[in-house]
């Protein structure tokens, strides 16, 4: 029997779930609120550059991740060879933190992860569709999904919600389902807090050489949390240019989230120049930015509670279901949810 499955969100978790369902008797519809796919693993193009301004790479968490990345096709696959170094709240840089033997992206950007996963499926992706609520019909057992315009889609046998926990909790608040497990679901999912991250991109018309690919602040005492050299990825930055992806600390990001780019970019450039001891970096020739209010989970939802809806066709996936804000974590939570749907 063919089942109709609705996946809310085309990030790594949603794309992973669709991939897991590719050879099953499932008609998969993905509803994605933005114009692109892969969520915070985002790529942008500007002025001849291509840059991963959210999640910077996919780590080789385990052998299954390594195998899946290679199975998706090694054409255009980029392994960032230079290491990640560290710095502290005083701006003292230290050699490597020994993280991540492989750091993968693609010449066309990290969004290739979701694009390649979805290319192997028959899933229908409806972009710019923000889901506001889901409803359950107790007589038929089917689900329907209502978007922000009031348009209703369905019926579906299964709904999988993959947005960040606060957004998923908001959808559940508007959910018409009288099952007794709903109170527990809302509380468990709503309890997961997130860190806010704002990224500032700084471009320079000259090339810099460093022994590292990225720097990470390990004591959480600096306004900069992470700075990465996008030119270390093949095909991303033209020769003779430099592009820094600067992710600010959650505290700084929250305080300055809505400040105009024209106001914050000079301050961030000054911080980067001081950290890297290079006054030329105070004057980028162009800048860009992106913010994520729900960037990284600070906790994890109770696994037993969030699976209580599965017998009725309600599933959840995302980094907040496993408590690790990394692309591979979201990806495998989606794949495993897809496998449970297939076997349900």
Keyphrases for this structure?
FAD/NAD(P)-binding domain; seven-stranded mixed sheet; FAD/NAD-bd_sf; about 25% helix; alpha/beta; about 350 residues; globular; 2 domains; 20 strands; oxidoreductase activity; FAD-dependent oxidoreductase; Polyamine Oxidase, Chain A, domain 2
Summarize the structure.
GO terms for molecular function: oxidoreductase activity. By secondary structure, the chain is of the alpha/beta class.
Give a description of the structure.
α1 runs parallel beside α3, α1 runs parallel beside α9 and α4 packs antiparallel against α5. The strands form 5 sheets. The chain has a 7-stranded mixed sheet. Strands 10-2-1-14-20 form a 5-stranded parallel sheet, with helices on one face. A 3-stranded antiparallel sheet has the order 5-9-6, with no helix packed on it. It has 2 domains: 161 residues, 3-Layer(bba) Sandwich (FAD/NAD(P)-binding domain), CATH 3.50.50; 154 residues, Alpha-Beta Complex (Polyamine Oxidase, Chain A, domain 2), CATH 3.90.660. The chain contains 9 helices and 20 strands. 26% of the residues lie in helices and 29% in strands. The model has no long low-confidence stretch (mean pLDDT 95).
């Amino acid at each position: 029997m063919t089942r109709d499955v609705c996946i809310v969100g085309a990030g790594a978790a949603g794309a992973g779930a669709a991939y897991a369902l590719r050879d099953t008797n499932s008609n998969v519809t993905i509803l994605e609120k933005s114009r692109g796919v892969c969520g915070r693993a985002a790529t942008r193009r500007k002025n001849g550059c291509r840059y991963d301004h959210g999640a910077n790479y996919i780590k080789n968490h385990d052998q299954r991740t390594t195998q899946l990345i290679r199975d998706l096709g090694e054409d255009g696959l980029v392994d960032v060879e230079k290491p990640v170094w560290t710095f502290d709240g005083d701006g003292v840089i230290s050699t490597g933190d020994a993280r991540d033997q492989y750091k993968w992206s693609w010449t066309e950007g990290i969004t290739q992860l979701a694009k390649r996963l979805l290319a192997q499926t028959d899933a229908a992706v409806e972009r710019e569709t923000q889901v506001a609520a889901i409803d359950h019909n107790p007589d038929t057992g089917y689900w329907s999904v209502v978007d922000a315009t009031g348009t209703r889609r369905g019926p579906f046998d299964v709904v999988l919600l993959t947005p960040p926990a606060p957004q998923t909790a908001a959808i559940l608040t508007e959910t018409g389902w009288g099952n007794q497990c709903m109170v527990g679901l809302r509380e468990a999912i709503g309890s997961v807090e997130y860190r806010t991250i704002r990224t500032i991109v700084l471009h320079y018309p000259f090339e810099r050489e460093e022994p590292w690919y990225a720097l990470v602040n390990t004591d959480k005492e600096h306004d900069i949390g992470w700075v990465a050299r996008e030119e270390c990825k093949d095909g991303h930055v033209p020769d003779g240019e430099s592009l820094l992806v600067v992710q600010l600390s959650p505290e700084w990001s929250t305080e300055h989230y809505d400040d105009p780019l024209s106001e914050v970019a000079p301050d961030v450039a000054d911080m980067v120049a001081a950290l890297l001891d290079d006054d030329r970096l105070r004057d980028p020739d162009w800048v860009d930015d992106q913010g994520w209010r729900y960037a990284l989970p600070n906790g994890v939802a109770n696994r037993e509670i969030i699976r209580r809806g599965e017998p009725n066709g309600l599933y959840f996936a995302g980094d907040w279901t496993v408590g690790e804000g990394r692309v591979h974590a979201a990806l495998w939570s989606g794949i495993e949810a897809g496998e449970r749907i297939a076997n349900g």
